[in-house]
What does this fold into?
Amino acid sequence: LHHFTLTIPALKIFSDNGFVGVDVFMLLSGFGLYHSLHRNGDLRRFYIKRMQRILIAYLIFGVAYCIFVSHDGFCQFLLKISTIGFWIGGDSLSYEWFVPAIVILYAVYPLLFNAINSKYSGLVLIGATMISTVIAFAHMVSFPQFFLVCRLPVFLYGSLLAKQSLEGSDEKSFYTISILSMLVACMTELIVKDDLYIYYWGRSFLTPLLVLILMTIFRMLPKTERMMSWIGTFTLEIYLMHWLVLKVATLYLHRMSIGINLTTLVGCCISVSMGYLFSKFVNMINGRLNIIGSKI
It folds into this structure.
């Protein structure tokens, strides 16, 4: 929804602020990675599963996207597929910024896991928040690298929540952080304007509140949780396929004069459907790779 310009007020909120969905996904990624490494500390297995999960889908879609949509030259293609484009920016970056960002978090996660597991985990989170704050206000890094920097505290917070859930901690600290984060976001909205760095940094503080709202909905409507858990198994594929659908929907559906709102509805349905089918294809390839790997 964020990538469309909607006119319906109730949905326009999502198109104007839909990027916070990435913040929620970052928090859930930190949560899931902590549980994964806590269950099995085999780093080789951890890296293979993580990279296999994201890079196979990214490689398949990246090849198709560069050939049929962006028509990149060979050098531009290599920059995108290798994830180097994320670090140098410029024309080498388009849809794929999130994949290189999450890859680097996967790469350093064992170090972050040990930091969260230490008795100084709270200080680690505070330190990451302070660093992202200084970088945001001083404009120390450029986009898109800043997208990763401003979301690092949210990612670490997800891991800290996972640790607390395994330890059986109560939810008071979660509620407290949610309220404090909401206040920071509101203050940023009121005080700082027309600065994209501060804007994205401040909005990331809404993530704990959004997660709290989602948790409340899931508790009230258990079937909603099951549906979202199912969709969560192929969110990466939806994210990737959406860029292709976005191009097609904007180019063809809008030309049919059916209106941006209906175009958005049709586009979102197509994105989810194609994402699901793409995930089936990727899972089939991963399954065959696992069979080959077991024989080596």
About this structure: The first helix runs from residue 9 to 17.
